[in-house]
Amino acid sequence: MSLLEVENLSVAFGSETNPFKAVDKISYRVEAGQVLGIVGESGSGKSVSSLAIMGLVDYPGRVSASSLKFDGQDLESLSEKQRRDITGRDIAMIFQEPMSSLNPCFTVGDQIMEALAVHQGGSKKERKAKTIELLQQVGIPAPETRLSAYPHQLSGGMSQRVMIAMAIACDPKLLIADEPSTALDVTIQAQIIDLLLDLQREKNMGLVLITHDLALVAEAAHQVAVMYAGQIVETGTASEIFSTPQHPYTQALLRSLPEYSLGEKRLQALGGVVPGAHDRPNGCLLNPRCPYATDQCRSNEPDLIGTSDRAVKCFYPLNAEGRPAA
Amino acid sequence: MSYILEAKDLKKHYEVSQGFLKPKATVKALDGVSFRIDAGKTLAVVGESGCGKSTLAKLLTMIETPTEGSLSFEGHDLLAPERAKELRQKIQIIFQNPYGSLNPRKKVGTILEEPLVINSQLSKDERKERALAMLAKVGLKTEHYNRYPHMFSGGQRQRIAIARGLMMQPSIVIADEPVSALDVSVQAQVLNLMMDLQDEFNLSYIFISHDLSVVEHIADEVMVMYLGKVVEYGSKEDIFANPQHPYTRALLSSTPRINPEHRIERIRLKGELPSPLDPPTGCAFNSRCQFAQDRCRTETPDLMDGVVACHGVEEGRLDYLQATQVATSAQPVEA
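Output (structure tokens, whole complex):
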């Protein structure tokens, strides 16, 4: 049994008759102790899908799924109260902008202790001791004095460490990290990712790492799901995805990286942008940007075909040479 | 051969008030930076936030005047007030966030023509003609002339910002993190555009970035900065094939790579950038450097031969310099 099983999760906004599907029937699993990387450009639905799992999508957003199971429990059948017991305790999330995710009016200590008070209780003294221990775990120097610091007194890297401390406060089984290092400097970015992966291994957590940085996923993730315009277009292990991508979108993303064109003057750019609410094409959503698109791609939508470990949503998956199979 | 831009020992110190009756503190945002750049070449300035990259951009565009040092453009003194207006036109800047750098209440045409209105005697029709020509150059269409910035995607906005920077036909463009707000696929489009424009107009770029994979692609020379000082300066090939300063090496090893062969052994940096109000004595990097010794904590290293500022390198005691070197000539990733 997987830790998290998502099947046909959709999130729609707008009218009932003409909804905009920000997330369109995505399915994936996360095992305990495993890192799943979700990559894609902005607007591909990475963040919305994880907010939906956390139960954080508010009206007018509508979440539907044929199955949303966490640790054997069906999240959708739970009452709101029961669900809130799980989110924050067993499933925790780290957001992109550490500076704006912390409440500027309360001290760091207060904010971490709040999570403990809600989910674990205990005396104030115990909570304080636990908070100091957590700050130590995430590598904050002199944690006793930091308890009374306000978020504006911390640097970006420190704030993100506090966010991580808050997320792991109740020993979650699953951690969702949404662009945890994007707003930070390179060396701090490396520190934060190292910290997350160390904690993940130590506590045997499942980790969903959402990012647009392909190289980061290549280094950190076991399984990878590539998203485009609300859909998962390819899944596989990290080495499969990065050495032999089967979907033209994955290939194009990889080829547009400077690392792919070392020593060459021009990068192989993928033209156009992710289609928005009003300009989604018929058929395969990638077809206006895809170099291999045919009439079939323009009129019919392909299915995600394959096993749960390796699948691709394309009529003409690419072969090992990186060309579409005839 | 003369350089198009030459900076010597540039310094910019800011006085910061620390409170009533307390003495003012000095932040050495830029502390003795020298470099020069040829026409048609790209100098990349690399470093983390707080290292003085943006202060450098402000000095070069004459938004701020340096506390000390000299700055010359094609042999003319950039700091002399007489020719400031004329020389300013030759150095333009592109900002990081195209969502913030374009006025939302002005149409693209107005944005592009504004520099011409201020700096030239061209008639309205001539201005429009130039703006349309520039739009075509950066890959936008004629009909975009009458649109507002909110109608464009991030990549298109950055194209508009680039077009605006080029309206005065500058020789030098300072690009302050021009692609860091963009997605990889769009980033590649904008980088290609910048390379094409460089060839066409023989532009010199000063490319400020923290993304080393982008720098490796676009730069001819690289200058690595830490807390207002240059720690390593050299050709792209040298810096990437054989990084000498521990900080350069830490930056390189912190950059994630797709191909495992391109990864180098991670140097874990302790802690964060120290406060510029209270920098450590000696080498500014000593508090985070695993190779730091007593000398590093007391004596400030000079930029040896204009290449690297590190006591460890000078004394030849850094192990990794003897070990196998990073291969930049490695094969590109298979995709």
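The radius of gyration of chain A is 21 Å.
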